[in-house]
Amino acid sequence: MSEAIWEFCNSPVGAMLVAAILGALLRKLFTLQPAWQRIYDRWRPYLVDAVRYAEGLVGPEDPSKSASKATVALDRMLRLADLAKEDPAAIKQALSKVVEDKQKDAQNG
To answer: Crossing angle for the helix pair 88-108 and 65-86, nearest 10 degrees?
Structure first.
């Protein structure tokens, strides 16, 4: 049985069929959007906001600016993720508070 399958795969028709199946699988693989991409697209605005928040919080005199910014941004994202797990309304309230704080800072400064 296995010899017959091997002979069929080695024939021109079999090789063409195997190539078509592999091509269809590769096409399917490359057209699917990866799961991480969907998660990234959903959380991207929050990531950008967290990085901007960290840039405003960490001063230029800090000897390890990059590490401090990354720590602050990660902490902010983890707090937002925890809020999203608990109550979706809470994340909206937290983000509206951030916007209000930014507006107050813009008016004062």
So the answer is: 140
Indicate left, alpha or beta for 89 from its phi (over 0: left) and psi (-120 to 50: alpha). alpha
Whole-model pTM: value is 0.45
d(CA 33, CA 35): 6
Averaged over 1-18, what is the pLDDT? 83
Residue 90 has pLDDT above 70, yes or no: no
- Give the confidence band of 91 by pLDDT, cuts at 50, 70, 90: low
The answer to whether 17 and 37 have CB atoms below 8 angstroms apart is no
Nearest to 105 by CA among 48, 42, 31, 53: 53
